[in-house]
Amino acid sequence: MNHKNLIILRKTIQIIFFLIFILTIAVAVYPFKAYFFTKLFLIIDPLNAIGTQTATGYFNPIMLLSLPFLLSPILFGRAFCGWICPLGTTIDLTDNILNKRHIKTIKTRRVKYFLLILFLLLSILGFQLFWLLDPLPIIWRSFAIIIFPIVYALVYGFVELFINVGILPDFFSRVNEAISNTFFSPHPPTASGIFLPLVIFLLILSGSFISKRFWCKNLCPLGALLGIIARWSLLRRHVVTSQCTACSLCDQTCKMDAIYDDFTSTNTSECIICLNCTTTCPTDSTEFKFSPPTKVKQEANLTRRSLIFAGIISLLGAGFLKLTAKGKENDRLIRPPGAVTEEDFNDLCIRCGECIRVCSTSGGCLQPGITGMGIAGLMTPRADYHLGYCEYECNLCGQICPTEAIQKLKLKEKKRYKMGTAIIQKDRCIPYRLNDNCIVCEEHCPIPEKAIKLDEKKIFSSFYNSEIIVKYPYVIPELCIGCGICENKCPVEGEPGIIVIKEGEERIKI
To answer: Are 342 and 336 in contact (CB under 8 A)?
Structure first.
């Protein structure tokens, strides 16, 4: 196969894996059965496995699937970064739009190795922060809770326009129904707290203004981990020295600045096997082939001083996180049913957005949390009952979670699982405040025995100028599971007349 065909093969495989990635998001809707498929890119992530298992000591057998990908650089170098990684593909697309220049950033690429060691030390100390820069959770979250909802809103608005102006209204109504039922059934997505995830995603893409694959070269800890192993890669770049004219075209087209100034030597830790150098070589003297690894200069080595500095920063960081975790608990912090205890939840959760994505198509209550949970809980999923509620007939957040931060619960078990307890705010509730009837919370309570009961009292109403019977709602804590539908449906504007607090919540110990 000639070099141009190899490039076509590489791009084709990139597109195939990117489409598979998009499909893992598209099928994460209620109801669905593709539990394993939706987790595909996250359970093969070595950083996910190392960070969560190290920080919590919780062994999840499914994480063993990441081992082949961790060891893959021995055979294929960092081909994962150039052929499979969906964030890498997204960056390639952005680079093609934003950056046509070749600017080297060799000196700064040591940063990703420093970050890898820093996050690894923090994990050993019990704080899992790999999620902050792990490319696979970042890209899944970005597409699932940002890109998909934006696309849905644009498509929905476009279809609504045709329906409103009377252009084939029946046809476009069916189109809208098909899109909603396929990708967002049965509710359109709602979002809050997506500002920080959006900023992180845009900052990564904005690296294209500096140089091609800026994120991959300088900041990606997964690339650093694979790069360390790729030093012993059997698949490597070879140049016939006698044919090389030192024209520098290979160096100019290298996305990763992996080619040294002699144009024949290659930093295998940085090379992502993109094959660009093979197609631009005018003498056809460059190829990739399997051969025994040889000792090659590695510019990305960290000095002893850098390692000591990483150790000091990790100790200070762990201490800071420990201090910020103390303080008065937020009684409005409601976690999904089946969530493990808070400390383990923050370390097991990789902020991938899978539970938020699937919940957006069901009850719609889970959102990335920004405030009220400390730095350690930043961007973890929490219930926002202003936007949705925990659907009584749904247990998909536990089914879809790739790290078991949310444990799997059978539907029958989930229906009894207590997320919190509803309480009446009598200064806001219509019957208590206005002595007028409102039974919305009782009507919507999904518990068969009704966790919200009504206490009927006969009072004299000055408004009606007669005696009336007013039904005053009250909560039976033993029956309430804290699903939040009462809070969500309460007709009181602003702060509702009934809210859910974490009192009585059940959490799983691992």
So the answer is: no
Contact 58, 123 (CB under 8 A): no
* pLDDT tens, residue order, the chain (510 aa): 677 888 999 999 999 999 999 999 988 888 777 778 999 999 999 999 999 999 999 998 999 999 999 999 999 999 999 999 999 999 999 998 887 666 777 778 889 998 999 899 899 988 899 999 999 999 999 999 989 888 877 877 787 787 788 887 788 778 777 776 666 555 556 667 788 899 999 999 999 888 899 999 999 999 999 999 999 999 999 999 889 999 989 998 899 999 998 999 999 999 999 999 999 999 989 999 998 876 555 555 566 666 677 778 877 777 777 666 655 578 899 999 999 999 999 999 999 999 999 998 888 899 998 877 878 889 999 999 999 999 999 999 999 999 999 999 999 999 999 999 999 999 999 999 999 999 999 999 999 999 999 999 988 877 777 888 999 999 999 999 999 999 999 999 999 999 999 999 999 998
Tokens of 271: 């090379």
- Measured CA to CA, the distance from residue 266 to residue 271 in angstroms comes to 7
The pTM assigned to this predicted structure is 0.90
Contact 356, 367 (CB under 8 A): yes
* Amino acid residing at 319: G
Q: Let me know if 25 is exposed, middle or buried by CB neighbors in 10 A (0-12, 13-18, 19+).
A: buried
User: How far is CA 222 from each of CA 122, 123, 183, 367, rounded to the nearest angstrom?
Assistant: 16, 15, 30, 26
Alpha helical stretches, state H, 231-387 = 249-253, 276-280, 304-324, 342-348, 354-359
Q: CA-CA distance, 179 to 174, in Å (whole number)?
A: 9
First to last CA, the chain: 52
- Tokens matching residue 329: 């608990």
User: Do 51 and 348 form a contact (C-beta atoms < 8 A)?
Assistant: no
Q: What are phi and psi of 116, to 5 degrees?
A: -60, -50
Q: Look up residue 447 and give its amino acid.
A: I
Cα–Cα distances in angstroms (integers) from residue 412 to residues 141, 393, 416, 446, in the given order: 29, 9, 7, 13
Contact 406, 397 (CB under 8 A): yes
Measured CA angle at 80 (ends 74, 83), to 5 deg: 130
Taken in order of first residue, the domains within the chain and their CATH numbers are: 418-510 (3.30.70.20)
C-beta neighbour count of 308 within 10 angstroms: 10
Q: Give the three-state DSSP class for 290.
A: strand
- What values do phi and psi take at 290, rounded to 5? -80, 130
Residue with token string 């608005």: 157
Q: How far apart are CA 424 and CA 258, in angstroms?
A: 63
If 0-12 CB within 10 Å is exposed, 13-18 middle and 19+ buried, where does residue 408 land? Answer: middle
The token pair at 480 is: 């309430």
